[in-house]
Every structure is written in structure tokens, then in C-alpha cells.
Specification:
The protein is α/β, with parallel strands linked by helices and about 450 residues long. The chain has two domains: about 55 residues, Urease, subunit C, domain 1, CATH 2.30.40.10; about 375 residues, Alpha-Beta Barrel (TIM Barrel). It has 15 helices and 15 strands. The chain has an eight-stranded parallel sheet with strand order 6-7-8-9-10-11-12-13. Strands 1, 2, 3, 4, 5, 14 and 15 form a seven-stranded mixed sheet that branches. A hairpin with a 4-residue loop joins strand 1 and strand 2. The protein is globular.
Length: about 450
């Protein structure tokens, strides 16, 4: 029998932090010894033939975190990233479970495509990769219904690896916009099965009108800054309002992806107050960048939905503080540096990497720091316990991922973090295949020092 003892760690939950010793035997959590317990005693490993003791005084212990919105680019786009490379980036950032989006080549809209992704993911042992199923046409909806209905072992196996359904209300990377006539049927199908529906919310007509109005507007500089005018905040708000209305009508568990606007936050806040089944996520790039950053970073901060003005950014932080925001998810979307910089600015692909840097950015703010090193954004309160809730507890519940966390008898899937470690983010040192980051040279505090992984 092999064992490992983590001594004097600070266990993080959504309620509090507690000093604990954790005994792991053969990959399972054998014992939790809480220091505040009247019966506290240090677990012993001396009788085990192979054992290790990890001194963790001053360290934070999280369960392996969850990023419920990533693009790992495999298959079809492996010059940008692979499941293996991006899983390594995730784990280095304390994330051991991810939910991967359907806009690959081919897209995840068929049984064969889903089965192929699951096969590929099975070769990545350090990260649990789940998938979203995409719907753009009637045949995809029919396939979704077949998978959700089950009926044989293979369909049940496929469904067990699905985190939900993803629809795009307007085109983004991969041009996966759903046919308008199918939207109601998708909401209805997900409601019937209690299955999460994730929506990329941008109104196509408002986006089209804005694109025509601003694409050649030379008064907006640099050129790439027009992107935020061409996909305006009003387009997101209108699409979110529509999606919430559909969720209310059908009783669908709706999740709003990468919400980026103050109007969107307020719509979700009201919907929750009205008892509608809606949740939402925000991405780190929408929390840490504003439209002023186009001048410094150009196309490196081009994404969909685009970065917004500071009033929207601060509304997102307020939504985290008051509990309107359920998850922080990175929308990790690597492209090569050449693709991002060697094309016309408005034609550069949208998306940025972020899965490896999310935790350190949040820990910096939780510790009272400012990774931007300026005063351009007012950060609202985010606590260590909030990180647990936003990056583990809530996504685990919303997407039915079945993670048990740090409890006796569970698989030892944990992340040990030094909250005081200061380091500089440099793309060349990150694990993503693309080797760049919009957070280049940012000073952050808090870093993963060890992963204990089993599932």
C-alpha cells in the first residue's frame, strides 16, 4: 500500500477555510483530520511500505478546479492546440476538469464526432475532458434527442461524457449559428431531459447592422477597436433577453456563456429573482481588459463577445460580489501568434488562451492585489471561498459533472496552491501550444505548487 500525507494545509470550501491534514492511500482520500476538531490526531503513514509526507503550512488546498468553457481545437485545428497540450495548460493552472466546445473540425454535432472526441480524450489521463454537443440543423437536433433518450450502452456512454448542449445565436469562430426555426425545439428538448443548454448570446441582426455602420469608421482607432462597436453591448443584451424568455417558456436550464455587459448582468439578476432557471459565467479577459487595451495589445485582445468599456467590466465584478455570476470560465481559445497578428486586424481570429492563468489572476485580486498594475478597473470583493464556488462548486452542479470534492472515500483530485508565490506571466513559459498570452509580463500572486490527481 502506498500513502501520502499532506500536513497543515488550509482546506478551501465555499463556506470557510480550515486547517487540515489529508491522508491519501492508493489514490483515495483515506482520512481528513481537522485541526479544530476536539479529537484531532495526526494520521500516521509509518506502517505503509511506500509513503510521502508533504509539508503544506500556509498552502491552500482546493479540489481540482473546473473550467466549463474551453476550446481545445482537436480534431481539425491541431496546429493551434491539442487536447494533450491544453490539458497540460489546464492542470498547470489547477484545473483538472474542462468542458470543451463543439466548434472543431468536424464539429461535435454527430454521434461519430462525439465518439471520436471521447476516444481522443481517453488518452489524456491528467485531465477529465467533457464535451458540449452542438446544434445548427434539424439532423443535429434529431441526433441529440437520440443520445438523450439513450436505449443502449453506447448512447449511455456518450451521454455520460456530455456536459450539455451549446447553441450560437450568432456566428462566431466556426460559424455554428443555429437555424432560427430550431431554437424553440432545442429549448424544449433540453427542458424535457433536464439537460443544460449553453447559449452564446449575440443578436445577429444588431451585429449585422453595427458591422455595416462601423467597419470602415476611421475615427475609431486602432482599427481592431471597431470590433467592439461591430458587436455591440445591445446585441448581447437583446439575445440574453430572448434566451431568458425561451427558458421561462419551456422551463429549460439555461446557462449564458461569457457574459460581458452590464445589461446582461442585470437581465440575469432579474431572471433569478423571478425564479427562472438561468445561470451565467464570465471570462477572465472580460474582467481584466477594457477597450482601452486595444491600443496596447491590438488583435491579442480580439474575442467574441468583444472586450467592453470599463463600466461593463466593473458591473461584472459587482455581479461576482453579489452572487449573480455563477461561474468564471476562461473561454480558452488558442490561435497561433501568426494568425492573430499577420492578418488584417478585423479579420484576425477571435479568441485568447486563458486556462492556465485564471486561478493566479483571481488569487491576486482575492489577496488585495491588482494584476494590471494600474487603477483603471475597480475590483469588487472576491474571496478565496468565492473562487471555490465559481470554479468548482457551481460548475459541478450546473453541468452535473459528479465531482465529489475533498471528502473521505473520494478520489484524491486536489490542487495545492501557494497563495503568496509571486511570479510573472510569460507566454513562453506557459503550456498551451500557442505560447502567447494577453497577460504577458503581468505580476501575479498565487501559484499551483502540486497536483494530486485521480478520477
Amino acid at each position: 500500500m502506498s500513502s501520502l500525507l499532506i500536513k497543515d494545509a488550509t482546506l478551501v470550501t465555499s463556506a470557510n477555510t480550515e486547517k487540515v491534514d489529508v491522508l491519501i492511500r492508493d489514490g483515495l482520500i483515506d482520512q481528513l483530520a481537522f485541526h479544530d476538531s476536539p479529537s484531532y490526531a495526526l494520521p500516521s503513514v509509518s506502517d505503509d511500505p511506500v509513503h510521502e509526507v508533504v509539508e503544506a503550512e500556509g498552502m491552500l488546498l482546493f479540489p481540482g478546479l473546473i473550467d466549463n468553457h474551453v476550446h481545445f481545437r482537436e480534431p481539425g485545428l491541431t496546429h493551434k492546440a491539442t487536447m494533450k497540450s491544453e490539458a497540460a495548460a489546464a492542470v498547470a493552472g489547477g484545473v483538472t476538469t474542462v468542458c470543451e466546445m463543439p466548434n472543431t473540425i468536424p464539429p461535435t454535432v454527430t454521434v461519430a464526432a462525439l465518439a471520436d472526441k471521447i476516444r481522443r480524450a481517453s488518452e489524456v489521463t491528467e485531465c477529465d475532458i467533457r464535451f458540449f454537443f452542438g446544434v445548427t440543423e434539424e439532423i443535429h437536433l434529431a441526433t441529440l434527442r437520440e443520445i438523450l433518450a439513450g436505449g443502449n450502452a453506447e448512447l449511455e456512454r456518450l451521454r455520460s461524457r456530455l456536459a450539455g448542449v451549446k447553441i450560437y445565436l450568432d456566428h462566431s469562430t466556426g460559424n455554428q449559428k443555429i437555424a432560427d426555426e430550431l431554437i424553440g425545439d432545442v429549448f424544449k428538448t433540453c427542458a424535457e431531459h433536464g439537460f443544460p443548454l449553453v447559449a452564446h448570446c449575440e443578436d445577429p441582426q444588431l451585429n449585422k447592422e453595427a458591422a455595416e455602420k462601423y467597419k470602415d469608421d476611421e475615427s475609431i482607432t486602432p482599427t481592431v477597436a471597431r470590433h467592439s462597436f461591430m458587436r455591440p453591448a445591445q446585441a448581447e443584451a437583446k439575445a440574453i433577453e430572448y434566451a431568458i424568455g425561451m427558458a421561462k417558456e419551456h422551463g429549460t436550464p439555461l446557462h449564458i456563456a461569457h457574459l460581458s455587459t452590464s445589461e446582461g448582468i442585470e437581465l440575469v439578476r432579474r431572471a433569478k429573482a423571478d425564479g427562472i432557471s438561468v445561470t451565467c459565467e464570465v471570462a477572465p479577459h472580460h474582467l481584466f481588459f477594457t477597450t482601452d487595451d486595444y491600443k496596447r495589445l491590438g488583435t491579442l485582445v480580439k474575442m467574441n463577445p468583444p472586450i467592453r468599456t470599463v463600466d461593463h467590466v466593473e458591473a461584472l465584478w459587482k455581479g461576482i460580489e453579489d452572487g449573480t455570476v455563477d461561474c468564471i470560465a476562461t473561454d480558452h481559445a488558442p490561435h497561433t501568434l501568426e494568425e492573430k497578428t499577420e492578418t488584417e486586424p478585423l479579420k484576425a481570429p477571435s479568441g485568447v488562451p486563458g486556462v492556465e492563468t485564471m486561478l493566479s489572476l483571481l488569487l491576486t485580486v482575492a489577496g488585495g492585489g491588482n494584476p494590471r498594475s494600474d487603477e483603471s478597473i475597480t475590483y469588487y470583493v472576491v474571496r478565496i471561498m468565492d473562487i471555490f464556488k465559481l470554479c468548482f462548486e457551481n460548475p459541478n452542479r450546473i453541468f452535473g459533472l459528479g465531482k465529489t470534492g475533498i471528502v473521505e472515500g473520494a478520489a484524491a483530485n486536489m490542487v495545492l496552491v501557494d497563495p503568496h508565490a509571486q511570479w510573472t506571466i510569460e507566454g513562453k513559459n506557459l503550456h498551451s501550444l500557442c505560447k502567447w498570452t494577453p497577460y504577458e509580463n503581468w505580476q501575479v500572486t498565487g501559484r499551483v505548487v502540486r497536483i494530486f490527481y485521480a478520477y
